[in-house]
Amino acid sequence: MEETRVALISIIVENIEKTEELNRILHEYKDYIIGRMGIPYKAKNISVISVAVDAPQDETNALTGKLGRIDGISTKTTFSNH
Question: N or C: fewer beta carbons within 10 Å in the chain?
Answer without folding.
Answer: N
